[in-house]
């Protein structure tokens, strides 16, 4: 009976697996179509400088306007897309769109940086840097207008490639950020080798900073570590005034989070910024 059960489980597993694979294929096909039909849009999450209360940047966060299912958040499709070369097309779409929208910001008199989330697959594309450069200069913008964010788990997947590509990007003038710091597989040794401009402390540490002494100590240590390696430190997921007070006392440089505002589409971002 046990053998039959385990056979049954195996069949179910295979069916499950097949169904999953089929779903993935459908998803990738839909993504391809949606890139062509421009069925994506970006929302912007501002980055605030705690020193002077100025908005110094905004992170572009992708949303999928699915023809039938409506708005879908990136957590539900990016992980699948990142496993395939299609992530390159999607990243180029994000770069193009954020160039257009950065120019709208400039026309509105708002001079800030835009952060873009990239992934290891992007670094494996040999034309990545050239392509970015072309798109950006076609829009009369410069690499220094952008900040490229990568997570530490991403980087550890292939540390040698990451080291080479990130220093090329850095030399080309892009700012480089280490995203979700503290949650991935990290090694302190790569921190000193890679050309990071900023380190983003993940929201899981920020959320309970004023309730849990341990979280506060961890964030304090992360901020010091960031400063030692010459980085600006960004706190992610700031939702309360108390959190800001704590982060100020720990000499954190920048904050992001729903306390400032939820992510906004470009027109709303411009309105919001004018009233800020
Ligand atoms: P991330 O880069 O770490 O972005 C931060 C995520 O945390 C965003 O979720 C943001 O909306 C959310 N967040 C920020 N502040 C707060 C807060 O105070 N409270 C709460 N509850 N949430 C907050 P989102 O937009 O769903 O993005 C999730 C992840 O998807 C991003 O994490 C990033 O890894 C990925 N992603 C988003 N856009 C892109 C993209 O264009 N390309 C790629 N490759 N990945 C993207
Ligand atoms: Mg990010
Ligand atoms: Mg993050
Ligand atoms: Mg994240």
TrEMBL record:
EAL domain location is 24-276
Please give the superkingdom of this protein's source.
Bacteria
Question: What protein name is recorded for this chain?
Answer: EAL domain-containing protein
């Amino acid at each position: 009976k046990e053998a039959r059960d385990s056979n049954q489980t195996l069949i179910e597993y295979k069916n499950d697996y097949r169904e999953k694979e089929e779903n993935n294929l459908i998803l990738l096909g839909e993504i391809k179509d949606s890139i062509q039909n421009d069925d994506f849009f970006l929302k912007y999450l501002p980055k605030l400088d705690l020193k002077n209360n100025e908005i110094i940047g905004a992170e572009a966060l992708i949303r999928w306007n699915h023809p039938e299912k409506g708005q879908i958040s990136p957590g539900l499709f990016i992980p699948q897309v990142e496993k395939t070369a299609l992530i390159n097309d999607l990243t180029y779409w994000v770069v193009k769109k954020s160039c257009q929208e950065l120019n709208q910001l400039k026309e509105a008199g708002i001079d800030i940086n835009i952060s873009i989330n990239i992934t290891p697959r992007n670094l494996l594309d040999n034309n990545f840097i050239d392509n970015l450069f072309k798109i950006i200069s076609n829009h009369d913008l410069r690499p220094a207008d952008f900040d490229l964010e990568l997570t530490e788990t991403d980087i550890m997947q292939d540390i040698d490639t990451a080291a080479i590509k990130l220093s090329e990007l850095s030399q080309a003038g892009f700012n480089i950020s280490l995203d979700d710091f503290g949650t991935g597989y990290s090694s302190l040794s790569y921190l000193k080798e890679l050309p990071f401009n900023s380190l983003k402390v993940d929201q899981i540490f920020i959320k309970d900073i004023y309730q849990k002494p341990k979280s506060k100590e961890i964030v304090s240590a992360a901020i010091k570590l960031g400063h030692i390696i010459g980085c600006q430190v960004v706190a992610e997921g700031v939702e309360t005034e108390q959190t800001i007070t704590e982060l100020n006392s720990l000499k954190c440089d920048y904050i992001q989070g729903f306390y400032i505002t939820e992510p906004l589409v470009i027109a709303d971002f411009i309105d919001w910024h004018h009233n800020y």
